[in-house]
Design brief:
ATP-binding cassette domain-containing protein, binds adenosine-5'-triphosphate, Rossmann fold, ATP binding, alpha/beta, globular, P-loop_NTPase, single chain
Length: 280
């Protein structure tokens, strides 16, 4: 049986400079992995390691220079697949909700537009309200007519998650969606995504520079450095016995053993409402 997603020897080379003095930079170098239905895979690496470039290729925002990305055996980005059909199955949540949401758009437009685009019929407003409830923006009636500029960072990120969920994707690629948020708000978003993954039977790619959040979220991890995967495997096994020197450096850079303590403290603070379903 085909895996849900198969990334097969994918590379991305960026070119810059003039015709005569062309510079080439390999941002992603021969990366391969698979993702199964219902799995959470973390891609972990420092800034510049190529995580976002890989994510953008997976959701077909940019083409790969080499290699193939297959969704249930069918190539993403091939001429026979339209961008729209890829978007229906592979959705991405970005790092900066302030950048990705136009401040002058209302919530019902942000969430409702892709629904219409993908052929939803019936009462779109009701469908948007249901999605807002799903992502914890309640009472949904208080949020649906707000402008993006009237929302906090965490609320914006929830709207972006509602927008992605509306078209029932199979795979959600989350590119550091909590890094711009306060720790406690970030934990709320992490717990929300784990709940939604369950409810919607999603596979999730969780991109982060933080091993603590990777451990909290994922079953399996890929560690990226300089565009390459330097280590991969079961999350707990890697944390217990990292094989690569770079992974050990990342672990040593964690503020405490796996940052969980810090996350836990934030969740217990008055500002935090997060719960830790996996902590017990
Ligand atoms: N359009 C582009 N043209 C040229 N180089 C690029 C382009 N996009 C990314 N790069 C380079 O590719 C490398 C990987 O960038 P990428 O954004 O994928 O890293 P990242 O691991 O996601 O980092 P961060 O966590 O800071 O977002 C970087 O050195 C970056 O400067």
């Amino acid at each position: 049986m085909n895996p849900l997603l198969q990334v097969d020897s994918v590379s991305k080379v960026f070119e810059s400079g003039s015709f005569l003095r062309k510079k080439r930079f390999t941002a992603v170098n021969d990366v391969s992995f698979t993702l199964s239905k219902g799995e959470v895979l973390a891609i972990v690496g420092e800034s510049g390691s190529g995580k976002s470039t890989l994510a953008r290729m997976i959701v077909n925002l940019i083409p790969a220079t080499k290699g193939r990305i297959l969704l249930e055996g069918s190539e993403v980005g091939s001429k026979s697949r339209s961008r729209k059909s890829v978007a229906r199955e592979l959705q991405m949540i970005f790092q900066d909700p302030f950048e990705t949401m136009n401040p002058n758009h209302r919530v019902h437009d942000v969430v409702g537009r892709p629904l219409r685009l993908h052929g939803a019929t019936g009462d779109i407003r009701e469908q948007v309200l249901a999605l807002l409830r799903k992502v914890g923006l309640t009472p949904a009636e208080d949020y649906i007519d707000k402008y993006a500029s009237q929302l906090s960072g965490g609320q914006k990120q929830r709207v972006m998650i509602a927008r992605a969920l509306g078209i029932n994707p199979r795979v959600l690629v989350a590119d550091e969606p909590t890094s711009m948020l306060d720790v406690s708000i970030g934990i709320d978003i992490m717990n929300l995504m784990l709940d939604l993954k369950q409810d919607y039977d999603l596979a999730l790619i969780w991109i982060t520079h933080n091993l603590g959040s990777a451990r909290y979220m994922s079953d399996r991890m890929l560690i990226m450095n300089g565009g390459r995967i330097v280590e991969s495997g079961d999350t707990e096994a890697i944390i217990a016995a990292p094989r690569h020197a770079y992974t050990r450096t990342l672990l040593e850079a964690s503020p405490d053993p796996w940052r969980r303590q810090e996350l836990g403290d934030a969740a217990r603070s008055p500002a935090g409402t997060a719960e830790f379903p996996r902590e017990e």
